[in-house]
Structures are given as C-alpha cells and as structure tokens.
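Figure 2 data, in text form.
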Amino acid sequence: MMDPTQCEEEQALEAESLECILMDDLEVLSASVPRQYRVRVVPYVNGEGENYVAVKATFSIPPGYPDTKADVSVAAVKGLSTSQCQELERLMDQKATENEGMAMVYLLVDMIREWLIERNVAGATDGSMHAEMLKRMHMKEKDEKRAADTRAGEVASSASLSEEDALMRQKRLEGTPVTPESFLKWRTAFEAEMAACAEAKGGVGVAGKTGKAAGNGGAVKPSGKEMFLRHLAGTAEEDEEGAEEDEGGRLEVESELFEEEEDDSDFELESEDDEDESDYGDDSEESEESDAAATRKKGREKKGGDGLRGKKR
C-alpha cells in the first residue's frame, strides 16, 4: 500500500502521460485531488477507418488511487444505445477492479476502443431495432472472420510442422554424406577428444595414423593387426624353443647315484635260483617235444588205418 504522498505522485505522473498520449481527446475536469478526466473514444484514430460509433468516458480518480480503483461512467456520442453504454460501464468497472494497484486510465481507454471496434457498424446511429439487427450481423461476421483466421493459422502451423517433420525424416533416411574434408574434420576432433580423455585418465595416449604419439612417454600404441602379428610371432618362437629343448635338453642320469653295494650271499642265492629255473625250462622243453612226437605218430597210424578200410571196400 502506498502512502498519500506516493499516491499523489503516481496520479501526477499519469496525468502528464495522458496529456501526451490522448492530446485533444482528453479533457481535464479537475487537475487537483480528486482528479477527474473525460476522454472521447472512437474505434479508429488518425483516419485508420470510418467511425460509426463513439463515446465519452469519464474517469473519477479517488485520493487512494491507484491502490483504489477509478470510477468509470460512459455516455454515448453516436451509434450506441443506453443499454449498451450501461453494459460498457459494467465491463469497465470489472476491469478496473482487476487492475487495482496500478495506473489504469489509459488501459481502460484502450479496452473501450476495442469494444467499440466490434460494434462499429454503418447505419447503427439511432438505437432502433434495425440498428440493433445490423450490429448483431456485424458482430456475427466479425466472430466468423476471427474463427476463420484462427483455423487458418492452426492449419498453416500444422502444415509447417508437417513439412519440417518430413524434411527431418528425409534427412535421417539420407544421412550425412562423407567427404574427405568432413572425414578429416571428424578425425581431428576425435583424436583430440581421445587424447584429452587419455590425459585425464592417466596419460595413456592414442596415436593417430600420422605417427604422432600422445601420452605414455611418446610411445606409439600398436594397432590391433600389429598386436595380432606379434602374438603369432611370439607363439612360433615358443614352439621352436620347446622343440630344441626336447631334442637337446634330455636329462643325463648318473647311474652311480642309483647303484648299491650287493652282498655276496644275495648274489649266490640269485645264481642258484637262475640255475633251477634253467633246469626246469630244459625239462619242460623235452617233455613238450616227446608229446609232439607221440601226437604225430598217432596221426600217421590213424591215417594208415583209414586207407586200408577204403581198399577193402
């Protein structure tokens, strides 16, 4: 809330502004508190269009303004009936209440002008039924035109969005063509990004195809192919070393470490066992030979007997 001095200052500033803006349309009825103004309002100013209606609005400014709303009364100049003026007064009172706490006179004047534009109809000057009918027709045409403009704007907006969506979809399908210039630009940015990441992680660098090394003491990081070939070479060397070890790296055993002194008694026992085994082997061989001879003899005898029986028959 403003104190009386601040309210008076705000009112003085607004009075100066209204005189500069409204000029001849403004009539100051009271320049001291409480202030009072009368403003002639028409639909179009400066010859922008034909004015078929006009009013005079009187604004009474209370001492507590702008914290307290201004009182507005409306009188028809032409083209409006008493009931329409009363309707306009009720509308302005509502708008004044909504704008309490700020300078509102010029704002209310502008709202009155907009209201008059909607009712600015040729021939509506006497308040008769015919004039009222013309006003309703004019308002209906304005509403239809406003609705048509709104729909057209929505259609244009949707069409514009559809075209943008189509272009974006087509661009995604086609992709970005790769040229030597674009590839070099991408590679430069990529190597710089990777070098920065490597530096942040501990100095392990990434070397580009130009042979320049980054991080790791200037060492060039091998490519995947080089690492694979090195692995193969290392495996082959290990196989060759293993083969050489198999051929020339056999262990030589010193038999002296495994020899033990043998007792004479053990040697004699082993000798006797060997003789017994040899005798037994000889006897078994002789018995096998005699059995084989007896078997052959029986076979011959049997064969001879079969022959004699055959001749008798």
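Caption note: The helical segments are 4-22, 82-98, 105-118, 129-174, 180-201, 224-248, 264-312.
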